[in-house]
Amino acid sequence: MVNEIKSEIIKEKRSANSKLMLLVPPIFIIFNIMMGILMGESPEGKSYLMATSFNWYPIMVLPIILSLLVININNKEKSYHYILQRSLGLNEQKMLIAKNLVVIMELFIILLLSSIVIFIFGTSILQEEISLNNIILATLALFIGSLPVIGISFIINRFVGKKFFLLLINFLLTFPSAIFAVKKTWVFFPWSYNLRILTPIIKVHPNGTFLEEGSSFLEMNTVYIGIALSIGVYIMSLVILLILKRSKTYD
C-alpha cells in the first residue's frame, strides 16, 4: 500500500493538482477579501473574514476544487495505463485506495495553507479578532465534512465520462446545501455536512449571518454527529468503489 501511495505522489508532482495546491490559497484570500469588502466592517468580536472563509467559500468555491482534484487524478491515466498495471500484476484496488488518499492529502494541504493565510492576513492586516484554536477546529471540520463529497465524486467521475458533468453536479448539489443544513434532513444530504458541522464552531448560520447566543444551532452534538456521518459515508463510498472495481464495473 505504501508503494502505491508513493507512486501516486510521484505522478502528482507535475500534475494539474500540484498547480492547484499553489493556486487555491491566493484565490481563497482574494475571494474572502472581496466578500469582506462587500460586507463592510466586522461587528465587534466577530470576523466577516472567518464567516466568508468557512461559510460562503465551501458553497461557492470548494465544490469546484474537490471536483478538479478527483478529475485530475483519475483522468491523467489512459486505458493503456490500466492495461499495463494489470500486466505487471499491480493491485488495482490498492491503486484506487492510493488515489483516494492522495486526493485527501491534497485537500488537507490546500485547506491548511488557506487557513494559515487567512489567519495571518486577518490578524495582522485587518486587525480582526480571530482565535487560532477556532480556525484550527474550523479547518479540521471543513476537511472532514468534505470527505463524503470526495468519495461520491470518485463514483460519479467513473459513471459520467465528461469532466464538465462532475463539476456541474457538485456545484448544483452544493448550492442548496445551506437550505438542507438547517433542516433535520441534513443527515441525508452529504453536500451539507461541512456547513452543518462548521455552524457551532464559527457561530455563523448556514445562510451567512452571525448566530445569537442561545441559538439551537450552537449545540456541539451536531459536530459529533456530522463528523461520524462524514467518515461513515466516505468509508461506504470507498467500499462501493472497491466492489465496482472488483466487478470491473468501475472501468
What does this structure look like?
- The chain has 251 residues and is mainly α.
- The chain has one domain.
- The protein has helices at 2-12, 16-39, 48-60, 62-75, 79-87, 92-125, 132-159, 163-174, 177-180, 193-202, 221-247.
- Helix 1 crosses helix 6 (92-125).
- The protein is globular.
- The two termini are 21 Å apart.
- InterPro entries: Lanti_perm_SpaE/MutE/EpiE-like (IPR021205).
- It comes from Streptococcus parauberis NCFD 2020.
- Keywords: Membrane, Transmembrane, Transmembrane helix.
- The chain crosses the membrane at residues 20-39, 54-75, 96-123, 135-157, 164-182, 223-244.
How far the N terminus sits from the C terminus, by CA atoms, comes to 21 Å
**Structural class based on helices, strands and sheet pairing:** mainly alpha
**How much helicity do the residues have?**
over 70%
What is the 3D form? globular
Largest sheet: none
Radius of gyration: 19 Å
**How many separate structural domains?**
1
The number of helical runs is 11
Order of helices and strands: HHHHHHHHHHH
Which assembly state applies to the chains in this document? Answer: single chain
Poorly predicted runs are none
Total E-strand runs: 0
Question: Average pLDDT, to the nearest integer?
Answer: 85
Strand content: under 5%
InterPro entries: Lanti_perm_SpaE/MutE/EpiE-like
Organism: Streptococcus parauberis NCFD 2020
Keywords: Membrane, Transmembrane, Transmembrane helix
Protein name: Lantibiotic protection ABC transporter, permease subunit, MutE/EpiE family
